Amino acid sequence: MRKPVVGVIGNAHRVENRFQVQMVGERNLRAVAEVSGGLPVMFAGSPDITDIGALLDTVDGIVLTGARANVHPTRFNVDPCEAHEPYDTHRDEVALALSVACVARGIPLFGICRGLQEMNVAFGGSLHPEIREIPGRMNHRMPRLENGEIHPDPTVVFADRHDVDLTPGGAFAELLGCDKIRVNSLHGQGILDPGKRVLIEGIAEDGTIEAIRIAEAKTFALGVQWHAEYDPQHNPINRKLFEAFGQAMVAKQRAAA
């Protein structure tokens, strides 16, 4: 049996303030290749050059990665605000349609950080642009130095920062073998209202939604707010998630054989 092919969404960037490119963080690609056992292939987060039907005919699974840009507020009927930029409306268009299509076609879907947010919006949910502004919530953004610069040490940036309580007997609790985990936190935007088919399966100690699954999905359709691509070789929580994603793709291949 061939390696599962995994489509990993790209993000729009401008290099040297001149060249428009699509980029994927290498940690995502390595997690797919080294833990899920798949062949990662980046596809563009641009509807002009990404045919979703053709893409899903080609891949065995999809990963919606984290990203700097927020989901555009008009996607959940809120006016945009300059303070919450940047946005990536092209990725929004691809990712939201892709989330629904993956679930409809029974193709494993793994949403990470922005990917979880996209899955929620795709099924009719809403987001809050800055979770830390809600009374009682912690600052979920990545650690910074006193001068405001991002901390240069990735072990500090991706360190576990808070607990997540998992729904007893839910998909995450069964997959991870426990009802409480500890995770990293590198996001500003977060889920406000869950979508119609979005089941909440993990909540941070401050009430922030951290883990979801899509109800009645035929296969793996999970989203996490933390960055699960960080060190899944050694982090048992992240490793189990990527392994389960890989197993779902293999099951899909066998069913189609």
UniProtKB/TrEMBL annotation:
The name this protein goes by in its record? Gamma-glutamyl-gamma-aminobutyrate hydrolase
Gene3D superfamilies from the UniProt entry: 3.40.50.880
- The organism is Bradyrhizobium canariense
Q: Which CDD domains match?
A: GATase1_2
Q: Which SUPFAM superfamilies does the UniProt entry name for this protein? A: Class I glutamine amidotransferase-like
What keywords does the record list, in alphabetical order? Hydrolase
GO MF, one term, reads: hydrolase activity
